[in-house]
Amino acid sequence: MATTAILIIGAHGQLGSVLTGELQKIYGKQNIIATDIVPKTNVEGIFEHIDATDGKALERIVTKYAITEIYHLAAILSAKGEQYPLRTWEVNMNMTLHVFDVARKHKVDKVFFPSSIAVFGDHAPKENTPQWAPLNPTTVYGMSKAAGEHWAQYYFNTYGLDVRSLRYPGVVGYQPVSGGGTTDYAVEIYQSAVRQQPYTCFLKPDTKLPMIYMDDAIRATIELMQAPKENIKTRTSYNLGSMSFCPSEVAAAIQRTYPNFSMEYAPDFRQKISEKWPHSIDDGQARKDWGWKPKHDLESMTKLILAKLNKNMS
Ligand code: SER
Questions:
Q1: What angle do the packed helices 14-27 and 214-226 form, to 10 degrees?
Q2: Residue 41 — pLDDT band, cuts 50, 70, 90?
């Protein structure tokens, strides 16, 4: 049987750090090559320091390890991207196109490309946003993801490259965020709660957004990548749904364990970004094609995150 050699780009990021460990458990540490632009690493196993905007460096790694699958997770996120619009476009698009093209050239079996709810904007229904709702991104991050989705489809149609993609909602876990996302409040709030500190939220109390617990997000990614090729009917990106909530609802869920937890609101420029995004997602296509089913809701996620953060603190 041919060996699987998996390259992870962005292994220090919010998703990358968890996905690296999970893939190591499934495929063995010796078969996972974790990479990131940040050199300092806690990764157990193989790590290479690369800047994925450097196509030649990327190609060297793909050749060196005879890579068969790539998970390309590196990107500048929505909020940070608005501070450096042109740089964000350049970085996000350069990396994505290098990854797709190196994968084509070296006949990599499968590529994972993460997209986001940020591809939606005006004219997409806010409730149960359909798989084929129009894409009208308002951030450079969203524009780069929408363009990336179409390039993914192009590489599949033109070269037969097996690129698979999910439109992640906000990913929430006990693991810290590296920053720059509009949904980051939902991670930071739990960290304040266990430290017995009040939290100042940068979104308004009733800003409802689609979210997913980290374990579900990781499971979705691995299930999509392990699904038989013929089941993957959507070659842009799959809507991925799980739960939806607003800041006041997370605060209330936390207060059931920490009655003294308090939250203040100081909405900033991220409010405007969030108002263009869906409230909830129709992921019927993912459920039908490869059997997607989320396991967690706000209550179960809150219990798990608080318990884990508490344990880590003591
Ligand atoms: N979580 C991302 C962000 O907030 C959206 O994909 O930018």
A1: 50
A2: confident
Sorting pLDDT into bands at 50, 70 and 90, what band is 205? very high
78 and 56 within one domain: yes
Residue type, 15: L
Measured in degrees and rounded to the nearest 5, phi and psi for residue 297 equal: -120, -175
**236 touches ligand 1 (CB under 6 Å):** no
1 part of a folded domain = no
Residues spanned by the domain of 43:
6-171+212-239
141 catalytic residue (yes or no): yes
Q: Which two tokens stand for residue 242?
A: 């799980």
CA–CA distances in Å: residue 95 to residues 77, 102, 144: 14, 10, 11
CA separation for the pair 221, 240 (Å, rounded): 10
Residue closest via CA to ligand 1's atom 3 equals: 181
